[in-house]
Write a structure and sequence with these properties.
Layout lengths: L3 H7 L5 E5 L14 E6 L13 H10 L4 E3 L12 E3 L2 E8 L2 E6 L18 H13 L12 E8 L2 E6 L6 H6 L9 H7 L14 E7 L3 E6 L13 E6 L3 H9 L15 H14 L3 E7 L4 E5 L9 H10 L2 H8 L4 E2 L29 H10 L6 E7 L5 H16 L2 E7 L2 H6 L9 E5 L6 H5 L17 H12 L3 H18 L2 E3 L2 E8 L3 E2 L9 H5 L3 E2 L2
Parallel strand pairs: 2-11, 15-16, 15-17
Antiparallel strand pairs: 1-12, 3-4, 5-6, 6-8, 7-8, 9-10, 10-11, 12-19, 13-17, 13-18, 14-19, 20-21
Helix pairs in contact: 8-10, 9-11, 14-15
Length: about 550
């Protein structure tokens, strides 16, 4: 394992793997069968179009396919996302705004009513994309907002026409948050896909049963389009919201991967149980890499006092990021700018953010001066919308931030909500003055920049409308050349560092953990649990 000091020095690029104790040699020939058990979360419902929630998108990654996917396995470096075909056998781009996909033949939906195992066609892809783009309240439609038209050219050919060049289009199609391919029959029968019986896809596993607040059981799709896959017959997603219970279950061997998202263990818990694990689960595999989950303070920048950049800058300088790393992340964390350090190909380190770098420095005296200059020498009141997400780390971080705000005269009262209520309000910008919580763990720099800042976007939680920024965002989206696009994205990050529309907290260095019996598995960022497990097997 890399040391904490080394992980911090790597600044988002570091990956290290190790094993606790001795690990037997991996089986060279995949084995079929077995049950994999994962700690998961109770979904608000099963319709991926109608929610941001990871609790829905994680199980969907097992049951549904996409046009493209991210390559998975132990050879893929966490934080990198090489593309490959999923339902698409091949694709081409005749011009800047046209993409043509040839589908695999013989792809079958799950043998469940009302679809009953029929073959997937181009019309299913067209329907799924159109549903995403036209359904009121579609949570992630913004990720394909560049699409002007999608056509089923013939039974196995899909054509996309974009409104304008969009450099990230293929990346968006591969993101498990964007568009899972569904069958019209399910929507026609159920009205939407919220019920578990409506969760019928072409993915490697089928939903067998759902027990609210208890478990989701998935079984192997017998007609999956990749011959021989998946190797694992059964996946149990168990809901467990008590951290002590999760820790005890992992020590006892109940879970095959770490119980925290995305298959990790919080470092505070890891320190407690590491020595026990050496004895009770020898050969346990681990990997360390930076998280792309960014926790931030969002503000109503469309109204006073947060429409004044000095107030936002003061809040950023009030936050003691070093203390957050020390007290909540066991010393292993990275300070983020507008693009998290985990996306090392695109992120600028804080020290390279130009004049905006200074606002990431803990300086309560300067923060008070900025507040006074903005007309708030006596401080100001605020409320902070918050949900715990069942995370002790998030709660501890929130407490530090509240104390930091109080130290500069901001009397911030916590407005704590149940997770479902939080997602329906604060996560889409419906709050009084401030909010605090994790942003979605995007896999592309564009989503970390455009989604929270572009006018009209549901994830623009700070209600940003900045003409200068709007122009920069549009420019990077249209810039196909990777080097030139990176230059624009760096310019955007320096601009946002000055504006402080969001105040970013440090992210942890993840400790991904998995059982020695789980072979051909590699951890990575994001919701695609199913994609990371489809070619894995259990050697026990």
């Amino acid at each position: 394992m890399i040391s904490r000091r080394h992980a911090l020095a790597l600044g988002g690029a570091g990956v290290a793997t190790a094993a606790l104790g001795r690990s037997p040699a991996a089986a060279q020939t995949p084995r079929r069968g077995g049950t994999l058990t994962i700690r998961a979360w109770d979904p608000p419902h099963f319709d991926p179009v109608l929610t941001f929630s990871y609790a829905t998108h994680v199980p969907t990654s097992f049951t549904h396919s996409r046009l493209l996917r991210h390559r998975a396995g132990p050879a893929v470096k966490p934080g990198s996302f090489p593309l490959e075909g999923d339902l698409a056998e091949s694709w081409q781009q005749p011009n800047e705004t046209t993409y043509v996909f040839r589908l695999r033949r013989g792809v079958r939906f799950h043998p469940k009513p009302p679809v009953n195992g029929r073959e997937l066609t181009a019309e299913d892809v067209r329907y799924s994309v159109e549903r995403l783009l036209t359904t009121p309240g579609a949570a992630n439609a913004v990720m394909l907002r560049s699409v002007d038209k999608v056509e089923a050219v013939d039974r196995y050919t899909v054509k996309f026409t974009l409104k304008e060049p969009f450099a990230w289009f293929l990346d968006m199609l591969a993101n498990p948050m964007t568009v899972a391919i569904v069958a019209r029959e399910c929507v026609d029968k159920f009205g939407d896909l919220k019920k578990p019986d409506a969760s019928v896809g072409t993915g490697p596993w089928m939903l067998e049963s759902y027990k609210p607040n208890v478990s989701i059981t998935l079984v192997r799709h017998p007609n999956y389009f990749v011959p021989g896959l998946p190797h694992i017959d059964r996946v149990e997603l168990n809901v467990d919201e008590d951290n002590a219970s999760r820790m005890a279950a992992f020590l006892a061997g109940k879970y095959d991967v770490g119980w925290e998202f995305p298959g990790t263990i919080n470092r505070t818990d890891w320190v407690q149980i590491r020595d026990q694990l050496k004895q009770r689960r020898p050969g346990l595999q681990t990997a360390e890499f930076p998280s792309n989950v960014v926790v931030d303070v969002q503000m109503r920048t469309d109204r006073p006092p947060f429409n004044d950049a000095r107030v936002r800058q003061a809040i950023s300088m009030a936050v003691d990021r070093d203390r957050i790393i020390t007290d909540t992340l066991e010393g292993a964390g990275v300070v983020n700018g507008p693009v998290p350090a985990a996306l090392a190909d695109w992120a600028l380190p804080v020290g390279q953010l130009g004049e905006g770098s200074r606002f990431y420095r803990y300086d309560p005296a300067e923060a008070k001066r900025l507040l006074a200059a903005a007309g708030h020498a006596g401080g100001l009141p605020a409320s902070v919308c918050f949900a715990t997400y069942g995370s002790t780390v998030l709660v501890d971080t929130m407490q530090i931030v509240l104390r930091n705000l109080k130290d500069i005269g901001i009397d911030a009262k916590l407005d704590q909500k149940e997770y479902g209520a939080y997602v329906a309000t604060c996560r889409v910008g419906k709050y009084e003055s401030m909010g605090f919580g994790p942003a979605a763990p995007y896999l592309e720099a564009d989503n970390f920049l455009s989604s929270p800042h572009a006018p009209g976007e549901p994830r623009n939680r700070s209600h940003v409308n900045d003409p200068v920024l709007n122009d920069l965002l549009a420019r990077q989206r249209r810039t196909i050349d990777v080097g030139k696009r990176r230059d624009v994205i760096h310019e955007i990050q320096r601009y946002l560092a000055r504006q402080q529309y969001y105040v970013y907290m440090p992210s942890p260095i993840y400790i991904a953990v998995w059982d020695r019996a789980l072979k051909n598995y590699g951890p990575n960022l994001g919701f695609d649990y199913g994609g990371r497990l489809v070619a894995a097997w259990l050697d026990r």
